[in-house]
Amino acid sequence: MSRADIILKGGSFFRGKNLDNDLDFMAVSGNKIIGFGKESELDAYLGEGTIVKEYDKSNLIMPGFFDSHTHILHAGMSDKYPNFGDCKSEDETARAVKVYADAHPDEAWIFGFNWYHVYWGQEELPTKASLDQYCPDRPVMINDAEGHGVWCNSKALELVGITAETPDPPHGHIERYPDGQPTGYLDEMAIGLVAKIAYDLDDDMERQFIRDYMNRAKTIGIVAANDMLPYYGNDVGKPRCFSELDSAGEFTMRIHAAPSLFGDHQKVIEDAKKYNSGKYQIAIVKAFIDGVPTTYTSLMLEPFIDNPSTKGGTLCDLDELREKILEAQKNGLSVRIHCCGDGAAHYALDCYEEALLKYGDTGSRHAIEHFETTTQDDIERCARIGVIASMQPEHLAMTNVFSENPYLIRYNERQKKYAWPIKSLMDAGAVVCFGSDCPVVTNNPFVGLYRAVTRVHNDGEPKGGWNPEQKISMADALHNYTLAGYYGVHREHELGTLETGKLADFIVLNQNLLDIPADKIRETNVLLTVVDGNVVYEA
Predict the structure, then answer these.
(1) In angstroms, rounded to a whole number, what is the distance separating the alpha carbons of residues 137 and 156?
(2) What is the C-alpha to C-alpha distance for residues 312 and 178, in angstroms, rounded to an integer?
(3) Is there a cis peptide before residue 462, judged by omega within 30 degrees of 0?
(4) Can you tell me the distance from the alpha carbon of 74 to that of 191, in angstroms, rounded to the nearest whole number?
(5) Which of 122, 199, 311, 363 is at a distance of 20 to 30 A from 354, taking alpha carbons?
(6) Can you tell me whether residue 124 is helix, strand or coil?
(7) For each of the chain's 539 residues, which pLDDT tens digit applies?
(8) Structure pTM?
(9) Which run of H or E residues covers position 448?
(10) Measured between alpha carbons, how far is 84 from 116 in angstroms, rounded to an integer?
C-alpha cells in the first residue's frame, strides 16, 4: 500500500452523488487520491512526512468547483476596475469614473463594469456627454450589467473611428442623436468596434489579469473553469499567455478555453494539440445566437409581452452558424452556443440534431449556454440527443427585488413557467452543469448553490421560490457544479468526484452544505483548496 503525502480526517464527505460518504479519512499521494477508509484503517497510509489535516463533522470535504461558463480576462479585469452597480444615477456613475481615472493617471483606457440605467430609475440610455464632463482626455469604455452594452466617451469613439458615418454592424447597434452622431452607447455586435482596440492588451496585462482571476478563484473553491473567449467578433485572451503561466508553474486551477466557433476549425484542432496540458486546454468552441431579454435582443419563439412588435433577434447569420456546427460535429469539436431566448435554444437544438444525424457520434459534447426559458418538447429533445444544459443559477435573480425582475412582464405564461427549468432538464435525463458568467454576476459558487436550491431573490421573494417545482437538492446542485462540468470537456474519468485513482482536486469548507439551513449557504467559506495534490490556498 502506498504511503500518503496528505491525509484529511474527521470531516464530513461529499465525494459525489450516489457515492459512499460514510468515511473517516481520505489519503492523497502525489497528485492522486489513493484511498479512503475508517479510522482503524488510517495507520496503513501513514509514512514519514505524511501531513495529517484534521477537521470535524461540521466541515465538508468535496471535489472543487468547476465553473462551466466564465470570462477569465474580464473577470480578472473586474477585480481591478470599478463596479458601478451601487451607483444611483448617470451623473453619479460618471463621477465615479473620474475618481478612478484621477487615481490612475497613467492608464491609457478606463474600464468598468455593472452600470445599468434601470438601477437608476431612468428609461433613457446614458450618453457620452456625462462621461466627457468628468473624463474628456482619456478613452472610457464601461460594460453594462448584462455585458451586452457599453457606454463610451467621445475620446473612445474618436480613437476607434466611430462617427455619424459609421454604419451599424450586422447584429449590432450604435445609439445615435437625431442628427446621426453617436451618443456613446453601443450594444451587441457594435461593441466589437470598440473592443477590438480597447481590449488589445499587452501580454503583461493579460498575464496579470489571469493571475488576478486565479488568485480569487482558489479562495472560493473554484479549481476548474471553461473560459468563454468570444466577445463580439474578437477572442479575448491569448492562448500563449495562459500557456506561459502554466509552463512557469503559476496555474492554480484547470482552464478549458473556448475560442470562436466561427474561426478556422483546423487551427482550433492544431491549437488543441498544442495547448493540452493537465492545467490548460483548448477543449471547446463557442458562439452567440442571441442577446438578452432585458434589451429585447434574445431570440424568442413568440413576441415579448411588453413589446409585441418583436421576437428579438440574432447576433450571427443562422445559416453560417448551422454550417459551422455541422463542421464541428464532423471534426469532433464540442460547441457551446449562447441561447437566452427559447427561439435560440430551439434553433441550436435543430442544428445539433441535424449534425448528429448526419455525422453520428464523433465525440462532440455540445451545450446550450444559459437556457433561460424553453418548451417541454425541447427539454425532452435536449436529453434525447445528449446536449448539455450549461446554466448559471445566479441569473435567476437578476434584480435584488423579485417584483422588479423584468422577465415577469416580458415573458408569457409558458416562458415564465419554464424559466431556468433546471429540475425539468435533470428529470428528463439531460446533463446540467453550473457556472457563473462572471463578471456579469459573481463567480462565488455558494451564491449559485443558494439560488439553485431556493430560487428566491435577495428580498426572499417569492416565498417558496420562483417556480418552486424547479428547485433541486443540494446534492444535485453540487453534482452540477463538479462532475457535470468535467463531462463537458471529456474529463469525468479523472476529475469531478473523490475516488481512488482520480486526480487530487478538492476543497474543505467551514460548513457542511448538506446539513445547514438554506439561508446559511452564502455564508460558507473555503478552508483549503488543493489542485493536483498541491495546497494552493489555506485560510
Answers:
(1) 9
(2) 24
(3) yes
(4) 14
(5) 311
(6) coil
(7) 689 999 999 999 999 999 999 999 999 999 999 999 999 999 999 999 999 999 999 999 999 999 999 999 999 998 899 999 889 999 999 999 999 999 999 999 999 998 988 778 777 899 999 999 999 999 999 999 888 899 999 999 999 999 999 999 999 999 999 999 999 999 989 999 999 999 889 999 999 999 999 999 999 999 999 999 988 878 889 999 999 999 999 999 999 999 999 999 999 999 999 999 999 999 899 999 999 998 899 999 999 999 999 999 999 999 999 999 999 999 999 999 999 999 999 999 999 999 999 999 999 999 999 999 999 999 999 999 999 999 999 999 988 899 999 999 999 999 999 999 999 999 999 999 999 999 999 999 999 999 999 999 999 999 999 999 999 999 999 999 999 999 999 999 999 999 999 999 999 999 999 999 999 999 999 999 999 999 999 99
(8) 0.94
(9) helix 445-454
(10) 8
Instruction: Give the chain's domains with CATH numbers.
Output: 6-63+501-538 (2.30.40.10), 73-198 (3.10.310.70), 286-469 (3.20.20.140)
Half-sphere exposure of 466 (CA within 13 A, CB side): 29
Q: Which of 35, 32, 22, 27 is nearest to 8 (CA)?
A: 27
Residue 523 has which C-alpha cell?
A: 455564508
Q: How far apart are CA 479 and CA 159, in angstroms?
A: 47
Within 13 Å, how many C-alpha atoms sit on residue 56's CB side? 1
The cell numbers describing 306, all together, are 411588453
Cα–Cα distance for residue pair 218/199, rounded to 1 Å:
25
Task: Return d(Cα 446, Cα 481) in angstroms, integer.
Answer: 10
CB 77 within 8 A of CB 215: no
CA distance to 129, 173, 296, 500, per residue, from 194 (Å): 18, 12, 22, 50
Q: How far apart are CA 131 and CA 98, in angstroms?
A: 8
| Torsional sign, CA 442, 446, 452, 457 | negative
Tell me the β-bridge partners of 530: 506, 535
Residue length of the chain = 539
83 grid coordinates: 463596479
DSSP state of 254: E
Position of cell 478612478? Answer: 100
Distance CA 527, CA 435 (A): 21
- The DSSP symbol for 393 reads G
Using the 8-state DSSP alphabet, how is residue 170 labeled? Answer: T
